[in-house]
From TrEMBL:
Keywords: Metal-binding, Oxidoreductase, Zinc. The keyword tRNA-binding does not apply. This is Alcohol dehydrogenase GroES domain protein. The keyword Repeat does not apply. SUPFAM superfamilies: GroES-like, NAD(P)-binding Rossmann-fold domains. Residues 176-299 form the Alcohol dehydrogenase-like C-terminal domain. One of its GO terms (molecular function) is metal ion binding. Residues 26-138 form the Alcohol dehydrogenase-like N-terminal domain. Belongs to the zinc-containing alcohol dehydrogenase family. The lineage of its organism: Bacteria, Thermotogati, Deinococcota, Deinococci, Thermales.
Length: 347
């Protein structure tokens, strides 16, 4: 089948991928419809890996995706052929102490689509466990369904944030996850939301999505809050500087949730600042069982799912999508790869 393949740092192409026959047992075939490009996909593209997850051979990325059930066995699970589904990319083991404690996102045995060595979804067909497929209510299309995964990441991070009603929240980084964090924090009860983002077009978009104020530097944010900062800070950058900036704009005694994956897989913090402020720092990894919540939240209209999907591409155009998004050109926030259409899409 046709797929997008990453051969190593900076090397991406459309080629042929063969599904291992042992990987289809107990799964349903899904015709992939839409895949959105995540920041982690860009790490594999730019750096060839994230920590120990390294691209060692032509590899299919993609974990934010939707599809249509293309398997007659689907009806046994309430998923008849033709059903539009969002696909949870994580298959946790279900038996380790972390899974049993309700944290499947921390499962050390997880198989996560698009994270080496598990092939991802930027291909024509994907085989998924029925329990990982979520049928969508009326009004959702394939792009909406794919965007539920990053929305779920934001919901999980806000759960960690423990936002108190009416408190001040700062979001550091206004990429797709940051845009969702901004909106979910508001739904969770934030009384004031500030966004720290160096790119002007993303600051503008954050204001459109409900930010009370936007700032290009930590100093601007602190000045706007009379030097106090925010009680809760949600960091969602790809920069090694992001966590330090998040701690800088956090209020004394505040809570910082780190969601982003830094370039180079390392970051540092000024110990005296973190210690003297008495900050609580929590790292958020992927998400737990939040798809039903994400669907309900999107259905309510309280989160604008489509606002981050700024550019559209076919599978054949996917290498261009990666290049544009990595370079942050043309006011791009998130690319959507339409797997089935074979005619060019004007992004």
């Amino acid at each position: 089948m046709k797929a997008l393949l990453i051969d190593g740092p900076g090397k991406v192409r459309v080629g042929e991928f063969e599904q291992p026959p042992t990987d289809v047992e107990g799964r349903l075939r899904v015709a992939v419809q839409a895949v959105t490009v995540c920041g982690s996909d860009l790490h594999y593209f730019l750096e060839g890996g994230i920590g120990s997850a390294v691209v060692r051979e032509p590899f299919v990325v993609g974990h934010e995706f939707s599809g249509i059930v293309d398997d007659p066995n689907g009806a046994r699970f309430g998923l008849p052929e033709g059903t539009l589904v969002a696909v949870d990319p994580a298959e946790s083991c279900g038996g380790c102490e972390w899974c049993l404690a309700g944290s499947p996102n921390l499962c050390p045995n997880v198989e996560f689509a698009g994270s080496p060595p598990v092939p991802g979804a930027m291909r024509e067909f994907f085989w998924a466990k029925p329990s990982n497929l979520f049928p969508l209510p009326k009004g959702f299309d394939a792009v909406d369904a794919a965007l539920l995964e990053p929305l779920g990441v934001a919901i999980h991070a806000v759960d960690h944030a423990k936002i108190r009603l009416g408190c001040r929240v700062a979001v550091v980084g206004a990429g797709a996850i940051g845009m969702y964090l901004l909106q979910v924090a508001r739904v969770a009860g934030a009384g004031e939301v500030h966004v720290l983002e160096p790119l002007e077009y993303r600051r503008r978009k954050a204001l459109e999505l409900g930010a009370d104020a936007v700032h290009s530097t930590p100093e601007e944010l602190l000045q706007a809050t009379e030097g106090l900062g925010a009680e809760v800070v949600l960091e969602a950058t790809d920069s090694a500087q992001g966590p330090e900036d998040a701690c800088t704009v956090a209020r004394i005694g505040g809570r910082v949730v780190l969601v982003g994956i830094p370039e180079g897989d390392r970051f540092s913090l000024t110990a005296s600042q973190v210690r003297r402020k008495g900050l609580t720092i929590k790292l958020s990894r992927r998400m737990g069982h939040v798809y039903p919540r994400a669907i309900r939240l999107a259905s309510s209209g309280r989160v604008n799912l489509r606002a981050v999907a700024t550019h559209q591409f076919t599978l054949d155009q996917a290498p261009l999508a990666f290049s544009l998004q990595a370079a942050r050109k043309e006011e791009i926030i998130k690319s959507v790869i339409h797997i089935q259409p074979q005619t060019p899409i004007d992004g």
